[in-house]
């Protein structure tokens, strides 16, 4: 039975809202755009087109009451690839940033370097170049996130056209197989047969079926992590140097500002001191003026007092003189009267 016949049940769902898988990291809701021989295209509510390889598609769920609502305008909807096969569609994604699988240990983002008969090469930021067997890829989509600069990473030269030839090129090298999950193995690829490979890691010998090798890469995850840490340290050193230069400039500027502040403060203190002296001098002058005024006032009061005393003395003397004049007048009158009385007495005696 052909794949087209196997997918005939999906043809009636084109243009409807469906969910791929009942649950799990690969499950997405969206509008079923088209159904091809070995893959389907789904436009999600987040305006992302996801291409699912139908050999892994376990179930498709239709919500008969749901209506698909796009969150973007029609002229901003993403381009939908319409190749007849999943591998041909992958070829159209070459040199683009993509995400393989929606989640899980084997999900990776990177630049799609090349697509061959049964494997592809993905350049990643943290894991270097990872080679995937195409039949293990569950889904793929264009990654619209910020692009990563992978120009510093070394890209191995690959001339193999099929996965078995790729494995032969890795023989006697340290490799990592199935980078994520419990089936991840790293060690020296010692032997290769048509059915399985042998990987030696210290005292352990692993035999892995070729079909179940999802991906493979040169080196170990530890080496990749160490290289990433080295690049991060280099970037951190550059950032630290820039930070130190900025701190030095900031310190010089701070010292300059502090010196200016100190000069300003010293000038302010001198001005305050001068103002204090002037204020003290003014206070002293005011105090002396007040004392002088007080002394003058006191002298004036004393002069007034002396004048008043003199006036009182003059007044008393005038009064005494008046009394004396009156007394003299009275005595004169008494003497005149007495003389007149004596004359009268003499006349009588005669």
How would you portray this structure in words?
Residues 220-229, 268-281, 291-304 have a biased composition (Basic and acidic residues). This is Spore coat protein. Residues 217-324 are annotated as: Disordered. It comes from Metabacillus bambusae. The protein is of the alpha+beta class. The protein has a domain at 250-337. The chain has helices at 3-6, 8-11, 86-92, 163-169, 221-349, and strands spanning 17-20, 28-35, 39-44, 49-53, 60-62, 97-100, 108-115, 119-123, 129-133, 139-142, 174-177, 185-192, 196-201, 204-209, 215-218. Strands 5-1-2-3-4-10-6-7-8-9-15-11-12-13-14 form a 15-stranded antiparallel sheet. The chain is rod-shaped.
**What percent strand?**
15-25%
Helix vs. strand class: alpha+beta
Mean pLDDT: 80
Unreliable segments of 5+ consecutive residues: none
Work out the number of β strands: 15
The strands making up the biggest β-sheet line up spatially as: 5-1-2-3-4-10-6-7-8-9-15-11-12-13-14
Give the N-terminus to C-terminus distance in angstroms. 209 Å
Shape descriptor: rod-shaped
| Biggest sheet details | 15 strands, antiparallel
Round the Cα radius of gyration to an integer and report it: 59 Å
Treating each run of at least 4 consecutive H or I residues as one helix, how many helices? 5
What's the helix-strand series? HHEEEEEHEEEEEHEEEEEH
Helix content: 40-55%
Keywords:
350 residues; alpha+beta; 15-stranded antiparallel beta sheet; 5 helices; 43% helix; rod-shaped; Spore coat protein
List the helices and strands and how they pair.
Blueprint: H1 3-6, H2 8-11, E1 17-20, E2 28-35, E3 39-44, E4 49-53, E5 60-62, H3 86-92, E6 97-100, E7 108-115, E8 119-123, E9 129-133, E10 139-142, H4 163-169, E11 174-177, E12 185-192, E13 196-201, E14 204-209, E15 215-218, H5 221-349
Antiparallel strand pairs: 1-2, 1-5, 2-3, 3-4, 4-10, 6-7, 6-10, 7-8, 8-9, 9-15, 11-12, 11-15, 12-13, 13-14
